[in-house]
Amino acid sequence: MKDEEAKATILRLLQEIAPDIDPEELGMDDNIREVFGIDSFDFLQLIIGLDKEFGITTPEEDYGKITTLRYLIAYVKATK
Q1: Residues linked to residue 31 through DSSP beta bridges, in sequence order
Q2: Alpha helices (runs of H) in 18-60, residue ranges in sequence order
Q3: CA nearest 32: which of 48, 47, 54?
Q4: What is the pTM of this model?
Q5: Which of the four, 14, 45, 66, 74, has the lowest number of CB atoms within 10 Å?
């Protein structure tokens, strides 16, 4: 999987969770939750969506590590 494919999927999932966001506002190293004001419930929905979309299982202890788009892309590719 290429970085751009993973990025497009992640941004699509974010937009499904928070339809009023503009994915173009998110830089690769910006904190996803801070930029979009995503609460814990929405963040959990993102994790569930990622797990389904990429066929991975994200352990709860990894949730706090997932902060930026760059990290999330690398995480998805590493666990795939």
Answers
A1: 68
A2: 32-36, 40-54
A3: 47
A4: 0.89
A5: 74
Q: State the sign of the Cα–Cα–Cα–Cα dihedral 26, 74, 40, 11.
A: positive
How does pLDDT run across 27-65, given as a tens digit for each residue? 999 999 999 999 999 999 999 999 999 999 999 999 999
| Cα 4 to Cα 58: distance, rounded to the nearest angstrom | 21
The domain that contains 15 carries what CATH number? Answer: 1.10.1200.10
Residue corresponding to tokens 């814990």: 40
The DSSP letter of residue 69 is H
- Closest residue by Cα to residue 58 from 40, 42, 78, 39: 78
Q: What is the domain range of residue 40?
A: 3-79
Count of alpha carbons within 13 Å of 46, Cβ hemisphere only? 26
Number of domains in the chain: 1
Residue pointed to by tokens 């910006």: 30
